[in-house]
Write a structure and sequence with these properties.
The chain is mainly α. Helix 41 packs parallel to helix 43. The longest helix is centred in the last third of the chain and has 53 residues. The N terminus is likely disordered.
Length: 1021
Amino acid sequence: MGSKRKRGANSSQPAQKRAKPNHSTSKDVEAVNLDLDKSPFAELLTSEARKREAKVYELLGSADSDERIAAAGALITGLLVSPEAAVQRHLDNRLFRGLASSRNASRLGFSLVITEILNQLFGSKNLSKSKYPGLTFDKVLNILVEKTTPSGNIPGQEERDCYFGRLFGLQCFVGSKILFDEELRWPQVLDLLLMMAERKVWMRSHCGWVIVESLPQMGQDRAEETLQKLSDTGLGKTAESIGVWMKARSCYPKLRTPAKPWHDPMNPSVLPEVARVLKDNVAQDHGGDATNAKAKQGGWNAQLHFVWDLILATFVGQEGGGKQSKDQLKLFWTTVIDDGLFSKNASDAQKFRGFSIFQKFLETFATGNEKLVKELYTRNLMKCLMNQAAKEDRYLHRAALKSLQSTEKAVQASPELLLPILKELLGKRGTYDFDQRTNTKTIESLLQWATPTNVTSVLKFLRDPVVIGNDIGETEKIRQIYAGYVSKLAIQAKPAPEAPSDSSEPTNVAELSVRELAACAYSIQPQFKPELSEKSREVFRRLLAFTIGKVMRRRDDAEYLCNAVISVEPTALNMSEEIKVEQETALKAMRKLLKASKKSDSKNAGASVGLALLYAITILQLYDGAPDAISILKDLERCSEKMKSKEGGSSELLVEILMALVSRQSPMMRQISEQVFEAFTSQISAQALELLTEPLFAEENQKGYQALFENLDDDDVEMSDAENPGSGEEAEDIDEDEFSEIGSDVEFVTLNGAADSQDEDENDEQDEDASGSEDEGEKEPETQELANLDNVLAKVLKSHRLDKDKDAESSDNDSDMTDSEMMALDEKLVEVFRQRAKNTGNKKKDKKDAKESVIMFKHRVIDIIALYVKHEAANPFAFDLLLPLLEVVRTTTAKPLANKAVVTIENFSKSFKKARSASTPVVPTLEANEQFDLLEKIHKQAAKDMTHAFSRAASAASLLVASSLFVDKDNIDRINEIYAKTFADCQKGMIKMQGYFFTDWINWGMGHANTQQTAATEAIS
C-alpha cells in the first residue's frame, strides 16, 4: 500500500506540470477543455476511457474553481448513469484515494463529487437500494477507511495526507446529510473522528469542527448521546468539546448535558476550569497527570481555534447587549482572557493568542454590539498591551501594534465608540500619556473621529483629569499633554455640516477646540486647582498659533476663528487702559466686518472676512505682548476706513500690514497672511506690488537685514519659521520645506549642473567684488575694534604701541615684577582675550542669522507673489513681478530660494495660458509699448548671468511676455526683431547667452505657426 502511494504520488507530478499550460492558453482552448463528455463510464478501461478519465480527474484537482465545477458536473452525471461496477471502481481507485492527494485543490474537487454521490446513494433517492444494491453504507465507509489508512514505512507527510484524506471523506458524509437517516450510521463516523482525535492531537480541532457541523442535523437525542460519548472518552475537557457544548446548547436550548465535565461552559462556577482548558494547561478526565496531558496537546498555531468563533457567537447572539450579557462577558473575559492568557505566568504564545482574540472580539463588537466593547480593555491586557507596544525589540510588539490598529479601525467604523475607548485607554487601566508611553499615535489617530455630537463629551473627559492635581510637576505635564490633545482635535477635525443661521453655539469640532485652547491660554480658569502656570499658558499659546496655522483652509474656518477670538476673555493678562481701549475697538470692528460679510457678495465677503481675520490674529499678538500690535491695529483701522470710502492707498497699507506679520515667520502668520492676500488679489494696486517686491532686492547680509527690519525688534523677526508647538509630535507636522529653507547659506552656482569654467571664473569675480564691497563696509568697525583692543591691553600692561612713543609718558620705574604680579597680569590678559573671542563668535553668528532671516523673508514674499500670479495672471500689473523674480534668481546665494522664484515664473506662464484659453476669458488689455520695453529689459537681464537656472527663468519670462503680445499679429515682427538683435549681439561677442534661450524662442514660434496652419486648414474644410 505504501509503495503504491509513493508511485501514485510520483506519477501525479508530471500531470500537475502538464496542467499548467491550460491556464495560459487561449479562451477557445479553455472552452474545449470544459466541454466534457457526460456519457456513462465503462466497466472495463480502454485507452480512450483512460484518456477521458485522466482529463476529468486532472481538471477535478485544478486550482481553478470553474474547471473543478465543470469536471465535477461531468463526473457526477456520468457516474449516476453508469453500472454499479464502474461506480465502485471510481470510488475505490479514484475518488477516495484522491482525497489523500495534496496536489493543487484535489481534496476540494474530489470532496465535491463524493458528497453528491453519497447523497444520491443514501439520501432521498436512495439509489443504493434501487440501482446499486452492492454499494451499502458500510461498504462505502470501509472503502474510505481502507484507502486512507497509512501502512508500511511511509514518510510523515504521506501519513498526514492519509489522515487529512480520511477527515475530508468523513466531512463528505456529514455534508451529504445522510448520517441520521439510520440509527447506526452516525456512531460509526463519530468513532472514526474520535479515534483520529485521540491518535493525532494535531487533528483534534479538525475532527471537533466536523462534529460541530453535524450537530444541527442530528436532533436533540443524538446530540445528548454525542456529548456523553465525548465525556466518556476523556475528551470532555478540551477546547474542541467546549465548542461542541456551545454549539449544541445554541441548537437545542432544552438539551440535557452530561454532569461531567460541565453542564454549561459559560456558567460562572466552571469558568476557572474553562480558562484552564483554553489556556492549554489541562489534565485528562480519566485521571492522567498534567505532564502527560500537556504532552497530548497540539503544537502552537497562530490561527485561532474555532471555539472562539462559537464563544463570540454566544455573546453576539444575546439581545441588545443588555446588562446580563455585559455582566456575563465581563466575568468570562476577566476569568478566561485577563487572568488566563494575560496572567503573569502566561507564555508569549498565550499572550499572542490573547491579542488575536481581542482583535476578533473588538472587530465584531464594533458593528452592532458597541456596549460590550469597553469590557474588553481589562487590567492585565492593558498592561501587556502598553509594555509590548513601547519598544520594537519586544516579542509581541507587532501583535500589540495590530491590536491598537484594530482599536482605531473600530472607532472609524463606529465613531460613537470614541469616548468609551478613550476612557479605557486614558483611564485608570491605561494612562493619560498613552501615546508617549507606547511610542505610538493611537490617541492622536482616534481623536480624528470626534463628531459634533460627541466632541463636548470628549473635551470634558480629556479636561477632567487635569483640572485638579496634587503633584505640581505631574499636573503641569498632563496639562501640556491635554493642550496637545485639544490641538489634535482641531487639526484633524472633519469638515462640519453647515450650522443653522440662528445658532450661536459652536457646531463643529475645530471651533470648540480652538476656543478651549484660547480660553486656557488667556483666561483665568477657576476650575483649575492649582491655577494654570505661566509655563502651561505658554504651551497653550504656542499650540493655539500652531493650530490656527494648520486649520486655515476655507472662509468658514476664518469665521469661526474670529468667533473664537471674540469669545476670549483675557482675564489672565494685565493690560493697561490703552491696550484695553485698542482691544475693545478692534473687537467691535471685527464684529462689524463679520456681520458685513454675511450681507455682501462672495467677493466682498471674502475681503471682509480677511480683514476680520487680520484683526483676530493681531488681537492675539496684542495678548502675547507684541510691541507693534497696537500700531498694526491702527493700520488695520485706517485700511478698513479707506476700503469703506473707496479711497486710494488701501492696498498699499494692507501689503505693509501683511509684510509686518510675515516677518514673524510663524506658521500661523504665514498661513493667514497668504489667505488674506488671496482674498484681496484683485484689489492690489501697482504701488502695492512695488512695496511687495522691494524686499527681493535686499542684500543677504547684515546690511540687508537692517534695511528690512530696522523698525522691528529682534524678537519680532526670529526666522525660525515655526513656533515650537509644545511637543515633538506637533513639531513633526510642520512643513518640511519650511525647515529645508532655514540655514541655507550654500553658495548658489547652478541648479542643474555646473557652468563652464569661464562662467565659473566670472561668477567668482562677481562674488569677490561683492565680498570686497562688503569688507569695505565692515573695515571701519573692525579698525575701531582693534583700536579698542590696543587701549585695553595698554591699560593692563601699562604700556603703549611703538608708534605712540612720542605721546607716551616717560617711566623711570625699571624694576622687575614679582611672581604674584605676573600671575595677576596673566589672569587679566586671559580675560581680555576671552572677551575678544566671545565677541568675535557672536558677530559670526549674527552675520549668519541676519543672512538666514533675509533669505527666509524673501521666501515668504515669493509665496505671496505666487498667489498673485496664480489668480491675476492676465492682470497687466502681474508682469511687473517678472524682473524682481529674475533678480532673485540671479543674485541669491540660496538655492531653494532661486528654485522657488523659477517655479513661480513657470507657474505664472501656465496660469496666463489658462486664463487666456478660458471659455469666457476676461483678459485686460496690455499696453504693447510697455510690454516691449519689459521684453527688452528681460533680454538685458538674461545677458548678465549664464547659469542654467537663470537662463531657463529668463527664457520662460521672455516667452511669457512675447505670448502676451502675440494676440496682435502686428507685434510678431517686433518680437522677432528683439530676439534677433539679442542673437546678433551674442554672435558678435558683445554678450553671452545660453543657446537654449534662442532654441526655446524658435520652438515657441514654430508651435504658434503650426497652430495657425491647423486653424486655417479647419476653416477651409
